[in-house]
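Hi all, long-time lurker, first post. I run a small reading group and we've been trying to get comfortable going from sequence to structure in the token notation. Rather than ask abstract questions, I figured I'd post a concrete chain and ask someone more experienced to write out its structure so we can walk through it together at our next meeting. Sequence below, copied exactly:
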Amino acid sequence: MKIIDRYITIAVVLLWFMLLTACQRTELCYDHYPKAAMALEWEREWERDYGMAHLSSWDASYHGFSYNELRPATPEWVNLVKYKEGNPDGEHYLTADGGDVVFQEKGDYSFLFYNGDTEYIILSDVASLSDARASATSRSRASITSVMERHPGARSANSPDVLYSAYIEGVPPIDIHEVRNLPVKMQPLVYTYVVRFDFEYGVHHIALARGALGGMAESAYLRDGHTSDESVIVLFDCDVTANGCEAHVKSFGVPGFPDEYYGNVRDNAAERPYTLNLEVMLTNGTTLQFNYDIADQIRKQPRGGVITVSGIRIEDDQNKREMGDGDFNVNLSGWGQVDVDFPLPDFDDIY
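-- Answer (accepted) --
Happy to help. Here is the structure in token form:
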């Protein structure tokens, strides 16, 4: 029995020694695969400075809110697509802080990140790194004929949701049991325009207001942030204030723009038309439209900013009461029901 006990003791010691030497880092022994620790950093910018210096000159008393109040929120979760030799090789879901990603085999990988908690964005061609892009969903409004004439062929669209993306190319192979720390800078693809319609007189006649911004980019590419050459007409609703009408309109910015904040070189912007439309319903049910050429303002602010038109007037005789008993004839038909959201067709069927 003593001899048997001795052999058992030796076997246990040998097994214990093998377990200790099998992994040099015992804390990783549960996992024999390479791992990347993704740490997400969020660049919460609502506009890019191309000379307007809104951040340093912001007047909160004039706008009624601070500059920082316009910064987009951090999304709830992030989608990570792995690419190996240019081909998709799996997807992972991360929290807003990031997370660990385990690889089944070694190799050179590239990573594309974007937040997935969006409603008014269509993602397409994610299988192709060079073609992966985000586009705003379509929306119709029968009353924007005058804007459509200035932008022939452009579809009308919703304002896109807040969207961030990041791309890491050619990460060298990660060894077994290695944890590679990868900081990821999530940058915005959607920016905000503070649109102000300052009235000289007659704002008290307005019951409802909405607008359209023509000439904005139809989509943005996830890999490097540049926008497509195609344009859309972004539709939006307005708040009626004591001084006029106001809206915070999100868009991808101007078309055909290589965003230098993603490391691209900025070219001279093409001479494109940019149109701002305001449509108001008066308290007697009458609707009025105002169109403005805002190309000079947009070209100075290709990625968000402040657009202002002023001197607007609605005269009293434009809002005459039409009912003899002194009541206003507010007719909302044809206003609240003309906006219809519908899915964007598959891009393969379009292009």
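A couple of things your group might point at:
Residues 19-29, 323-330, 337-351 have pLDDT under 50 and may be disordered.
The first helix runs from residue 2 to 22.
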